[in-house]
Predict the structure.
Amino acid sequence: MEEQPIYAAFVGETLIASGPLESILPIVKAEFDQNASTLFLIFEEQSGRQVDFDLRGALNQVVARALPARPRSGPGRPKLGVVSREISLLPRHWAWLEQQPNGASAALRRLVDQARKREPGEQRARLAREAVGRFMTAMAGNLPGYEEATRALYAVNRAKFEDLILHWPRDIRAYVQRRAEEAFRPEDRPQTTIPEGWRLAP
């Protein structure tokens, strides 16, 4: 089965739901139905990017709008998170793919998954730091120690990072700690600079 993206939904400083879209949307929708003015902040965990969903209408309408929202140009399987997009390959590449078990799409997914598993720990840690940094910018930008914690994150200074977020709101702190596990891999080399374009102060 294809790996589904995981999302986390916050209302203020409180984490109200975490999991695939099918599991978090009913919870978010129920909160919305009680108070349509509720401000939700929903994050895609792998990238740390904030996403928005149209919560109007019945739950089945909300889910139907959310799942196919990704680009589609072919049959795809949106309920499984499978997205159909155009790619360009040479004839020899297509010929090889067409000979693979279960078709070209399945072969390409296997190749991508295998490549991801072979990614060096340093690269995975860098991507994890960037994801945590995006989340912190959105959720912790006004919290005490934010700037110092961001610097500690990119310097891979776990002890200082943990100390700086110690008094942050419980759910935000717990989420950041969980998502930062990959960012503090023992074999990773310290990165002392913050990626270009990132802001420290809101």
